[in-house]
Each structure stands twice: as C-alpha cells, then as structure tokens.
Amino acid sequence: MKPSIPKGTRDFSPAEMARRNYIFNTIRDVFALYGYNPIETPAMENLSTLMGKYGEEGDKLLFKILNSGDFLRGADKGLIEAGDTNRLAAQLCEKGLRYDLTVPFARYVVQHRNELQLPFKRYQIQPVWRADRPQKGRYREFYQCDADVVGSDSLLNEVELLQIVDEVFRRLKIRIILKLNNRKVLAGFAELIGAPDKIIDITVAIDKLDKIGLENVNAELLERGLSQQQVETLQPILAISGTLEERLDALASLLATSEVGLKGVEELREVTAGVMALGLDAELDLDVSLARGLNYYTGTIIEVKARDVQIGSITGGGRYDNLTGVFGMPGLSGVGISFGADRIYDVLNALDLYPAEARTATQVMFVNFGAAEAAASMAMMKQMRSMGVSCEIYPDAAKMKKQMAYANAVAVPYVAMVGESEMAQGKMALKNMASGEQQLLFPAEAASVISKSLFKN
Amino acid sequence: MKPSIPKGTRDFSPAEMARRNYIFNTIRDVFALYGYNPIETPAMENLSTLMGKYGEEGDKLLFKILNSGDFLRGADKGLIEAGDTNRLAAQLCEKGLRYDLTVPFARYVVQHRNELQLPFKRYQIQPVWRADRPQKGRYREFYQCDADVVGSDSLLNEVELLQIVDEVFRRLKIRIILKLNNRKVLAGFAELIGAPDKIIDITVAIDKLDKIGLENVNAELLERGLSQQQVETLQPILAISGTLEERLDALASLLATSEVGLKGVEELREVTAGVMALGLDAELDLDVSLARGLNYYTGTIIEVKARDVQIGSITGGGRYDNLTGVFGMPGLSGVGISFGADRIYDVLNALDLYPAEARTATQVMFVNFGAAEAAASMAMMKQMRSMGVSCEIYPDAAKMKKQMAYANAVAVPYVAMVGESEMAQGKMALKNMASGEQQLLFPAEAASVISKSLFKN
C-alpha cells in the first residue's frame, strides 16, 4: 500500500517551496509597499455564502464538507431515492471549501463592516479549491494572491494597482504586456450598434479575436444574432491601430454618440496617463477585445501576459461596483488584482529566472567527526547562527562519503570541517563547494565569508 | 441576511495578521537557521491515509469531503436505511481535511522516499482541521508549526531542537520552562515494579501529579490495578528532588535494575549536557511525570510551559521510532517539535510583548488635496517606495477630517501633506503622528527619517 494524495493536489518539496516563497514574498513585499494589509479567512465557508456565486457550473465545482455526526438527520429520503444528488448535497453539507478569495472577501467586508475603516485595502494569499477535472496546469488546490481596495471609486486605485503589477514583474524579471480595457467601452460598442442587450454576445465573440481571427469573430457575431449591418458597424473598432494615444483618440471618435462609451475612454485616458507619468517597465496595451470577468467588472479591466513565454494570462483584475450587494451591502465600489502564482511559477521555470536565494535553507553543513568534534562544531554553529548564518551538522559520525553525499543532495554552498587540529585552534576548515577553495577560519570569519558570498549572488 | 462563518473558525484582520505573522516569521527564521527546510502538503488527504491514525474518536473528528458528482453511486442502501452514518461516510467520501501535520509528513516521507536524502529535516506551518466541539481557545481550524528530522537517531537532533525552542522563545521574549522526560525512563518504572504491561496506566496516572497531587495519583494507580506494594515502590521516584544533576543521579540509582530505564537516564544526561554546554536561556527541568503522546513517543519527551502566564503547554515534541511504519516503511527514527501558535498568541497578548513591527503595513499616508497634488504625491511615493518605505495616498480628495480619521484608524505613524507650496518646492510636510512634530522634507529625506524612526522601536 503505497500512499498517495488526491488527484489534482500537490506536495511541495523544499526546493519547490523555496521557489514558491520567492514568488509569494515578492508579491507580499510589493503589496505592503503600497499600503495593502493581509487578512485571512477560513478554508471552510458556509455553503450559503458560496452557492449561487459562481453560476450553476461553479456550484458543482465546490468541495462540500459532510456534516459531522448524524448527517442523515434532516435529509429528505425522497431525494435519496430519486438520486437527486445536487439537492441532497445541500442537505448533507452545511460547509464548503472556498472557491476563490473574492466571495470570502465580500463576506468579510459585510460581516466586519462596523470594524472596517473605508477605503479598505487588503491582500490575501491563500489556497482555493475547485473540483475541476485535473489537467496540465490546472489543479484542484491552488493559491490565489489578491489585492483589492473597496470603498473608493477613485482611479488612483487603478493607477496604484498597475504600479503594483509593474513592480512585481520588474522584481521577478519577467517582461510583461499590461493589457487594459474598460467595461464601459464595451457597453459603448453595444450602444453604437443599437443593441445594448447584446453586450455579452458581442464581448464573448470579440474576446476571441486573438485566438480565432477577425473572420471567425464576425461569423460568431452573426451566429449570436447580430445583423450584417451591426457587424459592419463594429469593423472600424476591431481594426483600431496606432499608438496608445492614437487608439484612444480613434475610439473616442467612433464612440462619439455613446455617453457610456466616452466615459470608458475617459477613464482609460486617466489611468494610462497616471501610470505613464510615473514611468512603467511593462509594455502598456489597449485591447478593446479584452473582456475577462464580464459579469463582474463594471469599469477598468486588466490582464497581464508574459512577453517571453506562451502561456495564458498570468495576472488579471478590474473594477466592480457591487461586490457586496449579494450580502446586503449595496453600492460599494472596489477594484482588485489577482496574481496567478502557478503560472508565474511556470514562467520563471521556463525562463530560469530564479535567483540564488530561492533555494534551500542551509548555508553551511558541518561534517561530524565524532562526539568531541561535534560538540566543538555546535559551539561554533551557535556563534555563526547568532550572526544570521544557517548551519547544520550531519547528526551521525557517518563515513565521510555519506556525509558529503548528503551535503551535495541538499546543495549546501559551504561545508565546514572541525577535526582535532582545527578544534585545538578553535577554527574550522571552510570549503566552498562551488570553487573547491578551502580556508582555515574562526567562526566569526567564516560567518562573514559566507554572508558576503551569498549576498553577491 | 448577515453573512457569517462556520463556528470554530476565524477571520484574521490586518492587526491580527501582523501579530500572527510576527510569531510565524520568528519560528520560521529560527527553523531556517538550523537547516530545516519547508514543505507543504495538500489540505485534502485521502481518507485511507487519515483513518485509523488518531483512534476511533479521531476518525469522528475528521472533516470529510463529499465525493463530487453522483456521490450515491456505490453507496450501500442498507447503510442508509440502518442510519449507519459512520460506515456510510466512508462510502460517500474519499477525501478528508488533514487533522495534524504528522500523518501527512509520514505519508510524504514514504511517498517521496526515492527523492529524499536522509536524514530529512523539514518544517511545516499549515492549518489543520478538527470537528471538535468549539470552545474558548479551541478552534476547528488552527495552525500547527512543526519541525521534524527523520532518518537519524543521533541525540544531537534533540539538542538542536531544544536550542530551537530556546531561541524562538528568547526572540519572542517569553520566559519558559523546558520540561524533559524519556519514554524509556517510564518503561523503567514499569519494569521496576514488575509490571511492564502497566506502563500506560502508570504514566497516565503520574502525568496528573501537577494537577491532582500525590495522594490522588496514588489512589488512581491502585484503581488502575497496581498493588499497594507496587505503588509504594514508585514513591521514591515521585519524590525525587534537587538539582537536575542530583535528580538524574537519584533516578539512575533507583532504576539500577532496569536496563531500559538506565538507557533513558543516559539519554537524558546526554541531551541535557549537550544543551547546557551551549548555554540556554530557558529553565531546564526534568519531569518524570511528563508523558504526552505516550502511544507515540519512544525516547525523549519535550514540553514547554510559559513561566509568566497560566496556560497549558505552548510547545511539545519528542522522539518516535516508527512514524512511517503504518505506511509500509518501518524502522525510520525521528524526532520533532510542534509550536502551538494559538497559545503563543495568547501568551504574547497577555504579556503585551508585541514589538512595533508587528503592526499594519503603511508607514506614511499622503493626504489627497486634489488631482495635481495627488499626482505630485504619487511621484514622491514612487521614490520613497524604492527606498523601502510603505506609502499610500488617500484615494479621494475628501475632507481633511475624513482623511485624518482614516489615518488614525489604520494607525499610520506618519502623514505627509503636499499642498501647493510644498509642490512648488518638490517637498512634503511630514507629520509624526505620535509626537505631532512636522518637518518640510524632500522625499529622500522623509524616507530616511521614517526608516530610522521605525527601526529604533
């Protein structure tokens, strides 16, 4: 019986943890620099909080937790006989695992409304669970890294979130394209062709422009019930080109008759001008076909793609005007961003961009030559640890070959040897595992050599 | 409909997160200094991994996850009619939430045996879930912070784990008593009175010595089937006193006829001598009545109590010789320690020991005087952030009173004002919120003032 874990879940080894923590710490550091504070919510939420928030399909993808004790009490026997597992599940289970961080955040804001000072800026880095069919790059347990501000409709928030995105990827050394759109511009398109009720159909179709090309998008628009005339009216919009400035101007003149469309263009102008005045490493792109989370976003829409790796969106976000309405607190505007840690991990792996610090902890391993030498080593280690150097001693006085095999396996950059003669001098022979160079040093000297060399990388 | 969370679970606000992260980061830093590397395992494990590992009571306290889709398929209708929810649950659910970090760690070691280099030193800081009845200080979701080394029976590991405990609490400024015992000493007691099969009864009874006193312990020993003679034989052991050294000597002479008992004393000598040679802040105590996790530990037993707060054990651990046997990998010895984050949190609160850095993120809030001033402020903020200062701007040009109420609520130590005249000079008026002092400064000067003042605390 070889033990295993549920499909779609993962163990993270020390080497993987070091890389993941490098990503999380980078994101966390930048969030903090912008005044976002962490919160955490429970893994389990009441199903009444989760159900109905992610569509019918989403309800099925919730992991539900069987009630403790006599879970059949109160279950409708008729449902059991009918095999109506959907409705039965709601009777057997009161709790479910969180599906994302957005709904728990909305629930948090409403539940703690009296303790919160608005605007409320929070970030949250926690796992979420989805009973999706597992496949390459899609897991049933994965982390989300979200930052949101609620209670302010100022576009300065958008500017700061874009700065955060830019700074995170600058630190990670991933070159990105930062795509922007605005839901109001999409609403403008629908107004322009006299079909405001068709906004979803239009955007779902033109969202595929990159993937399927203009001809297929037009075919889909016709399929979705637009007239030939309406499709033609949209053509100049889909053909917009030029610099960001030129495209905004073209958009404004095409949407001249749509108040909401012009408002969207105006917001895009303000946000892009704001970030460009502050300077941006990322390539900024206006993408009128961008429509992620359309049922949800009401203003700015943000999507980030890696420039050097073919992979889907690695970060996304936008403004929503009614996050908490479903919990009885209407009219609270917010804007947020969500980093896709798993895809960022894949991008860093593909580009081999991990720095030296994203590796396992130990900086120096002491060889164990026996009880007396081990005791002397441990006294030296105590001193070096107090200087911030991570040390370990091989716990048994095993054969040198075995100890060195361990040192290589855990990839320690330094090995220290304290034999009889070193012990007599209160020193160690410190060996740099990369260069093979060896020095006879006091503990404080060794600590300083190690700290300096590891900071250089 | 006011939303809520499942009973026994908690939301953590930014202020609580700052305090919790202070604890976790302290523990993590010390683990790393001793060469322990992090791993993470999934929240969900197969129920086959979890069931039967925590006793019958424990099986009931596992949160079980309803199978996705048609969960009734394969369920025995007879069990439904009989209302046999225990056996039915195993048919409706394949997965459960982890109950502790020890069993997942054992599963990890066996599953990844071919990738691991022994000895394997890992730490793990993750939440666990138990369907316990919630009460004060007992939650259904809580964090465990475990460090273990497997694949080495060297007592140097014990010495290092005790150093880790000492260093963590030294950094947290919590004065502790570090209690030690050894399962082999307990086995020696049972041998001494000619009742080796009574070891559990003896230890369960004498474990209560602190709480119920000698007289009641003796009564319980009789109740549990020991003879008057056997109870009398135990009396000198329970009365051992003096210095650590004296008590070890007394123990050795009382256990002179028990080979396993003497081995236990020898191990205690080696461990205590090892840590004392290196110097210890904690008060070290030999406690022959200490018997936590007896079904589990086979050598050293460790327990930590706070000296200045009446609360249960705040950390515990010990050596086990067969962690992975249940998963088909026998004979792997290990030793570990587990920090009780929730109780440590309570102790720090009780003693008010949180340092200044354990607070919310923002170091300076810029007042928003309008679009032009905000743009100038944001340029200054960009510069200050690049120097590591956490900044935010109030997103709307709201009334001063409202903006200052926000600054007070999030407890920012500094507020910066960039009005027309400051803007003209490229400076800000930086106000220290504690002292009320105000200075006119360039951004780089302000960053330096803020960094220096916050490091002083």
Q: Helical element count of chain A?
A: 18
Q: What gyration radius of chain A follows from the Cα positions, in whole Å?
A: 28 Å
Percent helix range of chain A = 40-55%
Molecular shape of chain A: globular
Major beta-sheet overview of chain A: 8 strands, mixed
First-to-last CA distance of chain A: 44 Å
Task: Give the quaternary arrangement of the chains.
Answer: homodimer
Question: How many beta strands in the DSSP annotation of chain A?
Answer: 16
Q: Structural class of the helices, strands and pairings of chain A?
A: alpha+beta
**Strand content range of chain A:** 15-25%
Global mean pLDDT of chain A: 93
Detail the poorly predicted runs of chain A: none
Major sheet strand order of chain A:
1-5-6-11-10-9-7-8
Largest interface: A-B, 110 and 109 residues
Quick overview of this protein structure:
The structure is a homodimer of 457-residue chains. Chain A is α+β, with helices and mostly antiparallel strands and 457 residues long. Helix content of chain A is 45%, strand content 18%.
Itemize the secondary structure elements and their pairings.
2 copies of one chain form a homodimer.
Chain A: H1 14-33, E1 37-38, E2 44-46, H2 47-50, H3 55-61, E3 64-66, H4 77-82, H5 85-92, E4 93-97, H6 102-111, E5 120-129, E6 141-150, H7 156-172, E7 176-182, H8 183-192, H9 199-206, H10 209-223, H11 228-238, H12 244-254, H13 259-278, E8 283-286, E9 300-306, E10 315-320, E11 334-339, H14 341-351, E12 364-366, H15 371-386, E13 391-393, H16 400-409, E14 414-417, H17 420-425, E15 428-432, E16 438-441, H18 443-456
Helix pairs in contact in A: 1-7, 7-13, 8-13, 9-10, 12-13, 15-18
